[in-house]
Prior knowledge:
Shape: elongated
Order of helices and strands: EHEEEEEHHEHEEEEHEEE
Low-confidence stretches: 206-212
Strand content: 25-35%
Structural class: alpha+beta
CATH class of the largest domain: Alpha Beta
Distance between the termini: 35 Å
Radius of gyration: 21 Å
Number of strands: 14
CATH architecture of the largest domain: Alpha-Beta Complex
Number of domains: 2
Number of helices: 5
Helix content: 25-40%
Amino acid sequence: MVTVGMLDRVHPKKNLKAYPFAAVARLEGIEFFYFTPKDVDLKAKKIMGKFYENGGWIKKQTPFPDVIYNANSSADTEEEKIIIEALRSLVPFTSYPVGNKIKVFDMLSKSAAFSSYLPDTKEAKSVRSAIDFINDKKRAILKPRNGRKGEGIIYVSCIEDKYEVIQDNEKKLLSKKEFISLLKKVIHKPYLVQQFITSRTKLGNVVTAKLE
């Protein structure tokens, strides 16, 4: 039986892809398990994987899989870095990290094929710079520079002298003072601010993202 391991850094309950992957794998006759770098024993070539069984994630020791779905292989420690690099040399990975959002944006902006399609994007180095950008563009998105899977994203629209904010699936209309207070809580971490654009299909239909 083919085995697939999903590598990430959080518990599978916090990964929206973990359960669907486990369900589809079972239907296809594939053994699927979930694990983090801390679950790997390089010497024994074993992993303490989490298997979805009877409605929950059960820990079981298992050999290295045939392939690893790389959901997130970032390393917090030198030991974890060694483990991940060792796994890469032993087991095929499905994907590789290309850097944070600013690095990806910089790479795309240097490409003649993609640069003209990129929305204006800047690092939110201060509350003032973020507000100036948002006031200029009228609609913007605040994103964690190192975020993933939509975590921490804030949608902002200027409505007269107020700011309509969508955060954590909740819509709020804030005064400038309230919005500044929100920004102070958010951008103490590396954030970028990006012009919000309306995406359309070739037929002119608006593509919208469902907030869940």
